[in-house]
Amino acid sequence: MGDAQELLDHEDNNANNVNDNIYNYHNARLQCGLVGFNMMDAIKEGDGSRLVRCFKIVLLFNYKFKHTKYAYALLLFFAKVNALLSAKDAYLLVHNRFINKKGKKAGNIPLDLNTEHLNLDVKKLLNAMGGKITKAAAQRCAQGITVTNTVIDSVYQECEKSHRSGYHGAKNSDESVKSIATDLLQGKVFDCIPGRYYPGFKNFKSNIIDIEYRDFFAWAKNHLKQWKGIYETTTKM
């Protein structure tokens, strides 16, 4: 057992001497950040096609790090879009994912987030009832919340008042950006200098979707075979 551990440590040291694991770490972090920003921008712009392209990377990422439930959900999503749904339903699944309540450019939010906002409004109404809450009253609140919000929005417009923005932003991020940029430049994190590594990440790969694709395709085909017997496939026109 000791000889095996020494051999592994020796291989790790050789890998560290050849690779710059600090460079790999920040390169991978940059990739994750760019994918995340791309997804957020696609949501704001209501660009379903671009969001789906990002989902392909997220699928591989989730599979690599064994987030099996998320990987399963995304694979099923692609199966529905490309095989299980009609052309009309597939189009709606891709593009009918956003809502723009204010009509502003780049002002879209996900539909599920809007549903969470509605649920929060319903909870506020239920809390206001106190001990008088009943099942029938809760149902009336839920059924009338959309109309209630429409009335409230019309009152705001007539009074020329505006709702607070839902986006969270720093008051002044200049200092934070300058501090981070200074640390990165001083550390020369984007210059490849073999032999460097962070203590907690001695071996770090640069490619965030570096996976064994044979295993991935076998996993995907296994699920596709299962779904073929469960779902009725359609022919797209």
Give the overall silhouette.
extended
Uncertain runs: 1-14
The overall average pLDDT, rounded, is 87
Alpha carbon gyration radius: 25 Å
Tally of DSSP β-strands:
2
Helix- and strand-based class? mainly alpha
State the major sheet: 2 strands, antiparallel
CA-CA gap between termini: 61 Å
Q: Strand share of the residues? A: under 5%
- Helix content, binned percent: 55-70%
The helix/strand order is HHHHHEEHHHH
In DSSP terms (H or I, runs of 4 or more residues), the helix count works out at 9
The spatial strand order of the largest sheet comes to 1-2
Overview of the molecule:
With 237 residues, this protein is mainly alpha-helical. 68% of the residues lie in helices and 2% in strands. It contains nine helices and two strands. α2 runs antiparallel to α3, α4 packs across α5 and α6 packs across α7 (135-158). The model is unreliable at 1-14 (pLDDT under 50). It has a two-stranded antiparallel sheet with strand order 1-2. It is extended. The longest helix is centred in the first third of the chain and has 25 residues, at 21-45.
Task: Explain the layout of strands and helices.
Blueprint: H1 2-18, H2 21-45, H3 48-64, H4 68-84, H5 87-95, E1 98-99, E2 109-110, H6 111-129, H7 135-158, H8 174-187, H9 213-230
Antiparallel strand pairs: 1-2
Helix pairs in contact: 2-3, 3-4, 4-5, 6-7
Q: What attributes does this structure have?
A:
mainly alpha, 2% strand, 237 residues, two-stranded antiparallel ribbon, single chain, disordered N terminus
Short description:
By secondary structure, the chain is an all-alpha fold.
